[in-house]
Amino acid sequence: LFVSSVIGKDRIIFATKEDHETPSSAELVADDPDDPYEEQGLILPNGDINWNCPCLGGMASGPCGEQFKSAFSCFHYSTEEIKGSDCVDQFRAMQECMQKYPDLYPQEDENDEKSSKDLEAASTEASAAKEEKGSS
Length: 136
What we know:
Layout: E1 3-7, E2 10-14, H1 17-21, H2 65-77, H3 88-99, H4 113-135
Antiparallel strand pairs: 1-2
């Protein structure tokens, strides 16, 4: 007896003890050498972001994956003079999400505090420059 329900993007399946006693009929599929995402870098040949790239360290699929994708996409496609200066809100949302999961996304130690403050100052300056540019 399998009971299945969908919550958000996840499917939860409950199985009985008898279900686990039956041998699995699952077959392993060999890696496809023609997989277009295999062995590609961060950016695919068509210019899209390869969210499956191991270089992202799973950031695109973690609990803050959607916020990460939004911020990274904004930065990648930004055409502002200061690249990414139009992405402050997305990066702020990503940071706020990550702060909810300190075990998964450890904060910088004291040695990295200066670089974090520098980044925050740059974001504030970029935001101010954007507002100034919009008001003229």
